[in-house]
Specification:
5 helices
C-alpha cells in the first residue's frame, strides 16, 4: 500500500488500482437484522393484494400521470395564462377594442372609442 505520510516525488499511476484492490480484499459486513426486516416489510407493502388484482386508479390520476405529473400540469396552466395575456395585450396596439364590439353589430356609434376598427365598420 502507498505511504500517505511522505509525498512521493513522482506520482504513482497505479495508486487508484492499489487502493481499489485493498478495498476489494476488505471483509464486507452482513446487513443487520433490522435492515433486512425493514426491506422485507417495504417489499411486502408494494405487493399486490391477495388475488392479484390491483385497484384501478381514477381516470384523472391516470391522465395526470400520463401527461407527466403535476409539474407539467402547472407548466401548461402557466403557458395558457401567459398566452391569453399576450393575446389580449396585442389587441390594444391595433386600436380595436374587440371586447367592446361584441353586441354592437346593429348599432354603432362613432363615440364608442373604436379607433381604426370603427372606420372599417362604417366603410362596409
Amino acid at each position: 500500500m502507498m505511504d500517505m505520510k511522505r509525498p512521493s516525488e513522482q506520482p504513482d499511476p497505479d495508486w487508484i488500482g492499489d487502493m481499489l484492490d485493498d478495498l476489494g480484499k476488505a471483509p464486507v459486513p452482513d446487513p443487520s437484522g433490522d435492515l433486512v426486516a425493514r426491506v422485507l416489510a417495504d417489499a411486502e407493502a408494494h405487493m399486490p393484494p391477495p388475488g392479484g388484482v390491483r385497484p384501478v386508479p381514477p381516470v384523472w390520476q391516470r391522465v395526470v400521470q400520463g401527461i407527466g405529473g403535476w409539474g407539467v400540469i402547472g407548466g401548461l396552466v402557466a403557458a395558457t395564462v401567459a398566452g391569453f395575456v399576450v393575446g389580449v395585450g396585442t389587441l390594444d396596439g391595433t386600436g380595436a377594442d374587440a371586447l367592446w364590439t361584441l353586441g354592437y353589430d346593429a348599432y354603432y356609434d362613432a363615440e364608442l372609442g373604436l379607433d381604426a376598427f370603427g372606420w372599417a365598420l362604417e366603410e362596409g
